[in-house]
Structures are given as structure tokens and as C-alpha cells.
Amino acid sequence: MAKIPQAEAGQFLRVNPIACVARGMCAELLPEQVKLDEWGYPILKGDPLPPQLVAHARRAIAECPTLALRSDPTPRG
Amino acid sequence: MWFAARSSGMVAILLMTATILLGILGPLRVGSASWPRFALAGLHRNISLLTLALLLVHVVTVAADDYVPITFADAVIPFGSRYQPFWLGLGAVSFDILLALIITSLLRPRINLRLWKGIHWLAYLSWPIALAHGIGAGTDAYSPIGLVTAAVSIVSVLVAVPIRIARRDRPPIDSAPPKPAPATKPVAAARPAPEPVRLPGEFSTRTR
């Protein structure tokens, strides 16, 4: 079984815009970091994950129907 | 014991039906402020685990009861039973599929998503097999309560599954009307626009 890296504090959320199907699960589970645009696609806040949100972020990553949400040590851009 | 064996089977098929209905709600993007989608997804997951628990009760009580010569092996190995091998075999097949569904779903973030999805479609195979097992092997399949259980399950799934098939899982943007073209601005500056400075805490639309 592949060991998948878990989201950690200080990491950055990334979304794979091709895999995303705009189910909106991430914005429900992690509204502090994810907004939805007018079509339901996520807009991420560019901040590093604060420690108190790590558990929520892990759940949002696991619940994404297409597993399009990821946590990455490097910021976007 | 024999009462527990039969009732747990009936409750299990009802819970299985409820699981299917809740699972269908996900791709249909059903959700509201009071019933957010993640809550419906969690309910789908928890009721499926409850189904598993009821099935374990069903298997243990049937195997432990002396009324019929059924063993624990008959729960997972299909068509080898001394008692009604065909109908019990259907139950075993359905149970094996359900175990595969639950195990792969609990490991979903760690396995290939396409593999998970392919296995998950087998839910629509597991349910009718389980129902046939109940009607064929159930000693009170034709009692009033058995008929009601079967009828409720069949009707609800026959209504819901065609809806799921008719409405593909498509993001709402695919059915949205096209936006009016934005007013074109004259190209004024030949030099490239400066990079926008994003303040911390500000949302950005850039994804890379």
C-alpha cells in the first residue's frame, strides 16, 4: 500500500483543476481556506495551513469525490 | 436465535437500500444548508457500516442456530452449503461484493480512484443478488412483513437508479448558459502588466 503524505501544518492546499468536478465538498468542510466560484469550482486561499485546520484539511482531502485536492509543501505560483 | 437471524437479514436489506439511495444523492449534487453534501456522504458511509454490522449478526445467528445446517464458511464461500446451496450462495456472493466495496472505500484515498470507482459500481449488482437471496432463502419471504420489506426496497431503488443513470455526474457549468462575452478593452500598454501583489489572506484565482 502506497504511503500517502498527510497534510501538515504550514503546507499549502492545491487543487487539480482537471480532476475537479465542482462537487463543493471541500468548501463545505474547509470554508476557512476554500471558496467556490459562481460555477462551484474551488478558489483556494493561498495561506499556509494553520495547525488548527489540519484535521479539517485532511478530511476535505479524503472526502473529495475525485481526490483533486492535495496538500503540498510549496506555495502556488 | 432464529428470530434474530431472520430479522437481521430483513433490516440489512432495508439498510442496504437506504445506503444505495444516499449514495445516489452524491453525484446528483443533492444538498442544502441544513443537509450539506458532506453530511449526506457521511450518512451513506455510516449506514453502509451499519449494514455490515447487521450482516455480521445475520451470519453469526444463522450459523450458530441449529435449525438449519449452515456454517460460517457458507457466508463467504458461495454455493457450497448443504442447505439451499443456490439461494445461500447468492447471499454469499452479495456479502463478498459488499465487503470488497467497504474495504476499498475505507482505503479510497490510498488506492487508484478508477479501481475504487469500478468496484463501487458493483453495488448495483450486490443489491439485487441480496434481495434474491432474501426472497429465495428467506423462510418468511412471503409473510406480510417480508413482502413489505421487499416491496419498499424494490420500488425505491427502481425509482432512484434510473434517475442516477439519466442524470450523469456533470459539473453545473456544463449545463450553465454561456456567459456574455466581456467587453473588450483596447490594448493600451505594450509593456506587460505588472504581477499583481497578493496580500496575505487574500484569495487568489491562480491555481499553479
Automatic annotation (TrEMBL), chain A:
**What Pfam families would the database entry show?**
Fer4_15
SUPFAM superfamilies in the record: 4Fe-4S ferredoxins
Q: What is this protein called?
A: Ferredoxin
UniProtKB/TrEMBL annotation, chain B:
> Where does the record place it?
Membrane
TM regions (residue ranges): 6-26, 47-64, 84-107, 119-135, 141-161
Q: Which domain of life is it from?
A: Bacteria
**Pro residues bias locations:** 174-183
How this chain sits in the membrane, per its record, is: Multi-pass membrane protein
Domain (Ferric oxidoreductase) spans: 8-128
Pfam families given in the database record: Ferric_reduct (PF01794)
Give any Gene Ontology cellular component. Answer: membrane
Residue segments, region Disordered = 169-208
Per UniProt, the ranges with Low complexity bias are 184-198
Chief location: membrane
For this UniProt record, the keywords arranged alphabetically read as follows: Membrane, Transmembrane, Transmembrane helix
Q: What's the protein called, per UniProt? A: Ferric reductase
- Species of provenance: Catenuloplanes indicus
